[in-house]
Design a protein that fits this description.
- Three copies of one chain form a homotrimer.
- Chain A is built from twelve helices and 19 strands.
- By secondary structure, chain A is an alpha/beta fold.
- In chain A, the strands form five sheets. Chain A has an eight-stranded mixed β-sheet, sandwiched between helices. In chain A, strands 5-4-9-6 form a four-stranded antiparallel β-sheet. Chain A has a three-stranded antiparallel β-sheet with strand order 18-17-19.
- Chain A is elongated.
């Protein structure tokens, strides 16, 4: 397993590039972000679904775009300006151009009381209203007087925009990687997800011996996954063997994942196994702690085996959904760790097979140079890594099972497995074994 | 869930009324107790089975009645008198009228060495003998001299008496509540059980929308349940979905229940679920700690899913089977808690259904007024109580399963479930789901 | 269960007798050891398999015998002499007669660096070489000068020798006890195993009412079990219900066993049950900690349910495979404990049946003298030992299951079970129940 040493820096740089863009669930910010991605990787197809399209119980909303927004005091000072931080406007705010007194102004102001310096991230996608967000400290310092609330935005029929890239493998069975691109200037949640996903897409394109097909989608959260599923769920249900929703993957505090609804899919197995070796103190959240697109993917009738993978999980770190979730919260090391984790997952998925021994009793490894010819006390650690594979290669276990039993990660077993295959002692048994 | 605020007082008062009566496994004490109950609730049928009737491996014993019993010293002082406390006579004592010295007297005296002030409760149902019970302190203070042992009792062919009330529901499937009425002046074990049971019977009669049939029996312990089963076990086996043996339900120290033989019945599920919310520190006893009529109900070939439900379990509290198990040991609060627990069990049983979502992906709750239209950090607790039901309403879980998964008791889920049913988002799936 | 009080002494004495013999995986040492055993027990058949015979992936090696071996310094002092301790020669050393300087000598000298006083046990079965073993302290004290390395051994076509005894029971189903006889002067590993096994063979021969057939084999480790299996595995696979590999059974530090590959055989059940009562602090090792002939017996395709049973497990005690594993490490008490454990296992296996009650509800034990006629507080411990058997004798449990449920070892349940059978209350159900 060789990992590009500069990968953390590269992912960070891309996240940094898309950080300032004003994204929402629709609009030009999403288009611009996807365009940057497409320039790096031509495989990404950008697709649009018109306003009003029915998607299951939902409907594609109007497209939202915004040019300008500010609050000015009576002296013409801009108290807040959308250009400085796009969090200052509630997402999906309609236009306004009103002069109001302080009391009236405060009806349209959102703060996060528990974090006095932070500007909160607030949206109102499905009910038309307008609003401004500022820090608690700023709001508390507002003087009496007249204020000018100004928003120049449009909310009209348009499109929901998303990106998709499908990299074919030897089989149609798929690994599905989903990430969302609907948050404005928030770094961990969620510039980090799309940036990492893009580099995984590039990794997958470079894999020489790709067993599975890989599908990557860059969609707005909730309405995007519902839209995507409404078009594709039957195919995905049949073909996706494992999947990941990537979000909050740029900080370096911990690792975590959200289990599927019953924690019983192949994806759960892979993550439990891989994270158990990669970062034994990782946090596992049940589906009750869900909150991103795994909410849709895992529901009854959809049942696509997708876990959300995070460093610090959304909702669990203090800077979440505030202006403090900025490029200082994420790091090159944080990104590099997430990338390595995902590569380990991909290798584990790709290499996972079931093997069966060809001979009865232990084979004589000595004559094959795989066992020491002098037998003395305490020299068997390496030998046992090999003989333990032999012991459990009985056709009923795949490599993940064996990894769990013998305490060795799949990526460290591959060399030994290949030796056994070459020597003719084991053979692949029963095709690709994907245990759910 | 509305509970009568005076229920504890009412149950206490009834227990107090029946406390002084000299009950045993047969005889007029049982008849008198049942008569009091019938006056409160006419639905109770009083039935009698004659001495000598074969019931499985047993036979109904002779009927025992007692008029008078005492020990007098040579000065004519009554050392003990049955009229003061009916525990002073061993249950089923034959008559005696003998003058004896102290040494001979002591052959017929039972004490509880470990509790010097308490008069123990002792019986000899199946071997004819006589005996007296007193405190250790009294026995130790007896002087040498002549004593007069006097018991005027009858032991002759008669009947075993029990009460039964069946309240019909929409189906023949039954909830079975059993309690015993064979102990004399002992409050927790067991005046408390019949008194609580009577008020549950009244509650059930007042239920407007009763799904299940409810059967209540007031029987002598062991021989009574064996007798009742010998007549009814085939029907009960087929129709009882859950059942409770109520005893020691009047103190307020803890809550507990005795699991069925393999702890795998619907009753076990209900109690684990309900007690887990009602009183998380409750004690669960395995069938190895059994001792009341669950001994009979749960045996192989009978297999009626009955758990004994107690506050402090029989045999586990120090006053058990002594004169200290009196009306001071039980309390209005103790009774009220037991009543509330049983109502919660009944509601959980009645409301337990399996539901299935009608739409793919999450429904848009916002347009139905079930979801906030402004999305900001940390406001989702109530929403999750609803969406978690949606997530697991996939037809494979009944409400008890969902309650276990999402950590909300069934009685707190009902309102949300009804909203979902009304909105057409979920429907009942597969009839009444009673998982054993 | 009556155990010969002198059994520890007897086993110790036999282990002591065979301790000095130079055994290896082939050769006269094995023959001599088996001859001693055959003199004690004529049932043992000694069998030989010629060099070159193919056994699965292996081949019977040349037979090794040795007459003399030493290292002399230039003054003719014997630094080490095989006659003093046969560990001084690497097992399977070829002949040598060379004068060398110290530097050259050290290429052929093996020590155990971590134990300065101990001579290690080293072998080279499958590659021809020669070598000497000595303590680290001796090696470090060697002076410069000329040394004479002398080994007079033969390595030529011959036989692999083993012993086998089959004691017929009422059925062909077998209990299989395997032990190895290939180590030279090492007491716990492994003079202890064959010595104990011989006395178990004698015990089994004296059993009056033997349900199962018992097979005992005394074989060289690894190549011996592979050889034995290559001839017998199909029969064994079909007929062995439980089996034990006995080794390191002479010390008195702890008890332990090595589980089968999936810890799910009848043998695992028996050992978990019996050791749980015999020595609750015993150590259970997974198959990952294997190392003796369970390596072969338990592999896929062989799948004979054999656990290695030890006091301190091979590889886990410091003296293992050194000259400190001598007759002082083992004790009469150590042997007696192992013997008692194995007898308990045999009784548990022999007596394990499934029973079913003949009557509904509890039987009236009082009329059969099995229940007290006076009922008072706290007198039921013995009664519950009986009624708990009744409660779980429902045809679905064998006695080991019941033992686990009620917390009483099988050998303490037998008397009660016999009472119940005699009274006609229970009957054996479904023949011999061997749950795997």
């Amino acid at each position: 397993m060789t990992i590009d040493k500069n990968i953390g820096k590269k992912i960070y740089k891309l996240a940094q590039e898309i950080f300032p863009i004003t994204r929402s669930i629709t609009g030009d910010g999403v288009r611009k972000t996807l365009q940057i991605f497409k320039e790096i990787c031509l495989m990404i197809n950008i697709k649009e679904v018109p306003t009003g399209t029915k998607v299951f119980d939902w409907e594609i909303p109007k497209e939202w775009n915004i040019k300008e927004a500010y609050i000015e005091d009576e002296d013409g000072n801009r108290i807040i300006d959308f250009k400085e931080n796009n969090l200052h406007v509630m997402g999906y705010s309609t236009s306004v151009d009103r002069y109001v007194d302080k009391e009236e102004l405060l009806k349209y102001v959102y703060v996060e009381e528990s974090m006095p310096d932070a500007v909160p991230y607030v949206t109102s996608y499905y009910k038309e209203r307008y609003g401004f967000c500022m820090s608690k400290n700023m709001r508390d310092s507002l003087k009496d007087g007249r204020y000018h609330m100004y928003i120049d935005s449009t909310l009209k029929d348009g499109y929901l925009t998303y990106g998709e890239a499908i990299v074919k493998g030897k089989t149609d069975k798929e690994v599905f990687i989903s990430t969302y691109i609907c948050h404005p200037s928030l770094a961990n949640d969620n510039c980090s997800g799309p940036a990492l996903t893009l580099f995984l897409l590039k990794y997958v394109m470079n894999m020489t011996d790709r067993k599975y097909t890989y599908r990557f989608v860059f969609i707005p959260e909730t309405i995007g996954s519902i839209t995507y599923l409404s078009k594709n769920y039957k195919y995905l249900k049949e073909n996706v063997i494992a999947g990941f929703n990537l979000t909050c993957v740029g900080d370096d505090r911990t690792y975590s994942f959200v289990e599927t609804r019953y924690a019983n899919t192949f994806t759960d197995r892979v993550l439990k196994n891989v994270l158990g070796y990669h970062y034994p103190n990782y946090k596992r959240y049940s589906y009750l702690q869900r909150g991103s697109d795994e909410r849709q993917y895992c529901l009854d009738g959809i049942d696509i085996p997708i876990c959300s993978v995070c460093r610090s999980k959304f909702g669990e770190y203090p800077e979440y959904h505030t202006s403090l979730d900025n490029m200082e919260l994420v790091s090159e090391e944080g990104f590099a760790g997430s990338y390595e984790l995902m590569i380990k997952c991909i290798i584990t998925i790709e290499k996972n097979e079931s093997y069966k021994m060809n001979c009865l009793c232990e084979p004589q490894l000595g004559k094959r140079g795989l066992y020491p010819t002098v037998s003395k006390k305490g020299q068997y650690d390496d030998v046992y890594k090999l003989t333990n594979i032999i012991a459990y290669a009985d056709g009923s276990n795949d490599l993940i099972d064996i990894s769990e039993i013998i305490g060795v990660p799949v990526w460290e077993m591959i060399e030994n497995v290949e030796k056994l295959v070459e020597s003719g002692l084991v053979k692949i048994c029963g095709g690709n074994l994907i245990k759910m």
